[in-house]
Amino acid sequence: MNELLRRLLFLPPQASTLARDIDGLHYFVIISTMLGALLVTVVGGWFLIRYRRAYVDAHPDEYDVQARPPLWMKIAAVGSLFLLFVIWWSIGIRQYLELRVAPEGALEIYVTAKQWMWKFAYPGAARTISVLYVPAGRPVKLILTSRDVIHSFYVPDFRIKQDAIPGRYTTEWFEARSPGVYEVLCTEYCGTGHSMMRGRVVALDPGDFDRWLGGADLETPLAELPPQQYDPPWVVGQTARAPEVDPVVIGERVAETQGCVRCHSIDGTPHIGPTWAGLWGSVVPLASGDTVIADGAYLTESIMDPMAKLHRGFPPLMPSYLGKIRPAEVAAILAFIQSLRDVEAQPAPPPATRDGGAP
Amino acid sequence: MSTRRLAEQFEDLAKQDHAARLAMWIFLASEILLFAALFALYTSYRAMYPDEFARAAAHNNLAIGTINTFILITSSATVALALWAVRGGLQRLAGWLLIFSIGCGLLFLVLKGVEYGQHFRAGIYPGAGYRSAELTGQGVVLFFTLYFLITGLHAFHVVVGLAVLCWMTAGSLRGRFGPDEHVRFELGTLYWHLVDIVWIFVWPLLYLLHR
Amino acid sequence: MTEQSRHREDIEAGDLFADVPPPPPPDYLRDGRGIRSWLLTTDHKRIALMFYAVIVAMLALGGIFALLLRTELLTPDQTIMTAPVYNRMFTLHGVTMVFLFMIPSIPATFGNFVLPIMLGAKDLAFPRLNLASFYVYLLGTGVTLAAMVWGGVDTGWTFYPPYSTSTESSVFPVVVGIFIVGVSSMMTAINFIVTTHTLRAKGMNWFRLPLFVWAMYATSVIILLATPVIGLSLGLVGADRLYHFGIFDARFGGDPVLFQHLFWFYSHPAVYIMILPAMGVISELVSTFSRKPPSSYDAIAMSSLGIAFVGFFGWGHHMFVAGMSELDAGIFGGLSMFVAIFSAIKVFTWTATLYRGRVAFNTPMLYFFWFLFLFTFGGMTGVAVATQSLDVHWHDTYFVVAHFHFIMVGGTITAFLGAAHYWFPKMFGRLYSERMGLLTSVSVFFGFLFTFVPQFLLGNAGMPRRYYSYPARFQWLNVVSTGGAYLLAGALLLTLINLLCALKWGRRAGPNPWGSHGYEWMTRAIPIKHNFETPPVITRGPYDYHLPEEMPHVDPQAR
Fold first, then answer.
1. End-to-end alpha carbon distance in chain C
2. Which whole-number Å values give the CA distances from C73 to A87, A105, C70, C244, in the listed order?
3. pLDDT tens per residue, range C181-197
4. If you measure CA to CA, which chain C residue comes closest to B143?
5. Which domains can be identified in chain C, with CATH numbers?
């Protein structure tokens, strides 16, 4: 029954502990809404047909200009509707309290939203971007804030949503029922990239989560994940695969998980940040007017402190990855960028580049 | 005695006057709501930053604020007297009373300007422009932003009110009003009283509540 | 009866009582010729027609934006426009539909036209203010549209800071334009309230007011109480962009959620500004076509005032996921339900009015029938989204989009179309084609269902609103919705063509083609400039269908 109604109403899977109860109220509310509207419509439609003018004119005693429903019927109609609403309200507010008040001992994770990505900070030093790792079967409390405008952290499968507001800390909590990958959507309009501000919650087996948090290799838990339920457009290629040893391949994957490729294209198409195609070794015009050769030192500096030497013509949007990325991952990304040095699709560089002289 | 043309949709003058007064009162109520939104903001932020609001309010020049209150109430009184004069047929007296009120209004604006000048010299500007070093804190900046918004909006109403008073003065001196012809005059005085009433709420919020 | 023969009768009747036959005054459409006589008119009926033309143009404009949006959403990624264009487009759609079409729609057109006639007045209390409100509206519309075309605004019609204070687009002029339009609706509201108080005909006490007048009165009260607050809050956003006041900016200690409180304190009642006039229209339609008084006049009149009152206390349900305390959520959720109770009282009363009536089935009545279903369903989903735990899932998804389109399109636009057909003979003295009317009405309904029912399901599935691109699993529902939108647009276009044709070729209508007892039908087929030749004296209520047909409402011999 639950499964049938869930599919009929197009509700997503019930992946959190509270989702099932909330959906129960959902079914009740929607079915009573439909029945109520249908009842009014059917009664109204019946009157339209039953008392149509042609018929009533042939049967004049059907017409009673003073006819009105008896008082008890009015009271019953309004009263039962009121009762229905009170039931909705009392179940709704109880569930709302459950949704809002996290259980004691929940794992606390800080979420910072910015245009247009989610950043997660875990107990200890671990940081991720766009992908939230959580243990399944354990309550997780998110403490949200925003760096710029209002965003909203929405996981349809968990039936949770909470605005991330600059200058304020708001909370929400959930407990994933089983390991899996769940979609994160931003639901508060936040500008050009609003609809691309998506992410994933990866619920791991608690043991795997602890190992991951303790610094185990990022790929190991990913490899054990069930196949993707969705087709998130931010994934370039498959995520679930055997561990790689080639630094270029690892770099490509790190660039995906850290969200780099959502601003930097790898095929030379213009995007929010400078493309990586042909970047390695090229002459980069800086916002300050100087130029610099894009070598490992410059690129590392730009990952850790992006504002220090800003590429001319691009907005100062990139967050610092200092403390959020491991040295081995930086090395992998550099290897990946280096592998793209001969990609030809780069559009003509701005004329200012040439002023800087030949490398 | 000037005669008035009865608008054709009304059956008599009493109804037409009633309609005009009703419309004016409704308009004034909506003006109050304009300020009410600002007062609501003030209340919310005061609840968030009670100490900083108190400190900031204490910094305001209580003397100027109080003198301005006195000036506005006086001008309101003379405007009310002017209405009494018009009803009694003393149009020239009404004109001079109004000129006195206009003088009060201008004095109010001058004092307000002096006060703004003091704030600017102390580096107190609204919002991002705030650069006072001795009086700091986010609540303080919010207080002064609201201060400039509320007093600015009020000053705008004073200017509009002065324009209305000028129109009434010119009418009185030319004898366009009279015992039977005072409804529009009355509506003008109502507007000036609105300016006054709003200030009576502004004064405690911005000058007196500093404890 | 043809125009000429009636004129002849008028003249003959005059001959009996007067030595010199007074020439019959021309109807309002012919009273004064040339463009100047329209642009400078103070006749409420002509002003209403000018509003009508502009407002229908705004509906068309908003509809075109909607079609472009729906077309873009055919595919999960870019279809016909880029993300910045899409974001400007949905803002355009929202601002045009809400501020330029929906809020002035029924009051400024049908309200302006029939309210004074219903009251037995010659005109509104302040005819020049009425004309001014039209030009102020035009100015506001011009400023808003110009700013949106040249600069573009990408904030959505809600203008939430800090996005609205930090975006590159030209928020300030749009905000100014909306402010000006707000001033126009306040002018109309003051006029309506004062007219209702002072210009009622002899014998018309408050409980003989037609229910449409009650609805207009309640609407005007909401407009006057709410508009200054939105004016100020949008003004603050605008000022913030010029001077960086930071009043809602967390960097200066401000609280962006406070803007939402101020905004919804206006904009939630604004929803009732949009739906109350529609309810007024429906009350008139039902009574006329079932030839019965509403089964409870008091219930409908008082529930309008009830909605106007309670509507001011539910705004918080827009912020259940914005960090509101649990207590506030409980209170706001509970208060929101009272609005639904008042609306339900109206729905029950309308339905009960049909019982044992003599129900005529025609285009306005068909629109009433659609309204009954769409409004009841849309209204109950409104209570559903005010149910706190469900709102957490639904907030800012397509479920909410579908819900308010059910109220605004399914409620207000169907009532607007019902009114357009119902009062068409009074406005232009001609009848529209009933067959085409029924056909277009059915297509409007099905176009509507195909557009918005999939959006409910999209919301359930979790598709957020204002999404330019979306995960591919949402696609087929979006395709259905887009198809429905084109059907709806085609149906609306056909409706317009049908009415325009009737304007030129429709059969001439008598003074009271529907056999209504409403006061507005007691004038000549097309009213004269001052509506009545002699000041009417009201001797019975507007819905007294139990009194014999011959008994006049308006007693020309009195006085």
1. 28
2. 37, 43, 5, 36
3. 999 999 999 999 999 99
4. C247
5. 38-522 (1.20.210.10)
> What pLDDT is recorded for position C124?
94
Task: Specify whether the CB–CB gap between A183 and A157 falls below 8 A.
Answer: yes
CA distance B100 to chain C (A): 32
A4 close to C (CB below 8 A): no
| CA C115 to centroid of chain Cα atoms | 15
Left if phi > 0, otherwise alpha if psi is -120 to 50, otherwise beta: which for B167? alpha
Domain boundaries, chain A: 2-100, 107-236, 260-355
* Whether domain A260-355 has CATH 2.60.40.10: no
CB A114 within 8 A of CB A272: no
Q: Do B139 and C253 touch (CB under 8 A)?
A: yes
Cβ atoms A180, A221 nearer than 8 A: no
What CATH number labels A107-236? 2.60.40.420
Asked if A319 and A119 count as a contact pair (C-beta separation under 8 A), the reply is: yes
Neighboring chain B residues of C227 at a CB cutoff of 8 Å: 30
- Partner chains of A (3+ C-beta pairs under 8 Å): C
β C507-508/A291-293 pair status: unpaired
- The pLDDT tens digits for C143-166 are 999 988 887 888 889 999 888 888
Instruction: Write out the DSSP string of A73-95.
Output: HHHHHHHHHHHHHHHHHHHHHHH
Interface test with B, best of C41, C196, C198, C204 (most B CBs within 10 A): C198
Interchain contact A68–C (C-beta under 8 A): yes
* B129:C253 CB<8 A: no
Which residues of C have a CB under 8 Å from any CB of B? 116, 121-127, 186, 190-191, 193-195, 197-199, 224-225, 227-229, 231-233, 236, 239-240, 243-247, 252-255, 258, 261-262, 530, 535
Tokens of C115: 């309210």
Residue pair A92/C387 in contact (Cβ under 8 Å)? The answer is yes
Q: Is the dihedral of CA C119, C121, C126, C129 positive or negative?
A: positive
Chain B residues within 8 A of C185 when measuring between CB atoms: none
Which ipTM value was assigned to this complex?
A: 0.91
For the stretch C104-144, pLDDT in tens is 999 999 999 999 999 999 999 999 999 999 999 999 999 99
What does the pLDDT read at residue A115?
85
- Summarize pLDDT for C379-411 with one digit per residue, the tens: 999 999 999 999 999 999 999 999 999 999 899
Check CB contact under 8 Å for B34 and C122: no
What digits encode the pLDDT tens for the residues A262-314? 888 887 777 788 888 888 888 888 887 788 888 777 887 788 778 778 888 88
**DSSP letter, residue B127:** G
Residues of chain B found within 8 Å of residue C237, distances taken between Cβ atoms: none
Chains that touch C (3 or more CB pairs under 8 A): A, B
Pairing of strands A199-204, A131-135: parallel
Q: Cβ–Cβ contacts within 10 Å for residue A7, how many?
A: 9
Substitution target in A42, A47, A153, A235 with the highest count of C β-carbons within 10 Å is A47
pLDDT in tens, A173-213: 999 999 888 999 999 999 888 998 988 898 988 888 888 88
Asked if residue C159 lies in contact with residue C228, where contact means CB atoms within 8 angstroms, the answer is no
- C518-535 pLDDT, tens per residue? 888 888 889 998 888 888
List, for residues B88-114, the tens digit of each pLDDT value: 888 889 999 999 999 999 999 999 999
Domains in chain B, start-ordered, CATH in brackets?
13-208 (1.20.120.80)
Average pLDDT, chain C: 89
Tell me which residues of chain A, numbers 216 to 255, contact chain C at a CB-CB cutoff of 8 Å.
230-233
Question: Which residue, among A55, A71, A89, A172, would best test binding to C if mutated, counting the most C CBs under 10 Å from its CB?
Answer: A89
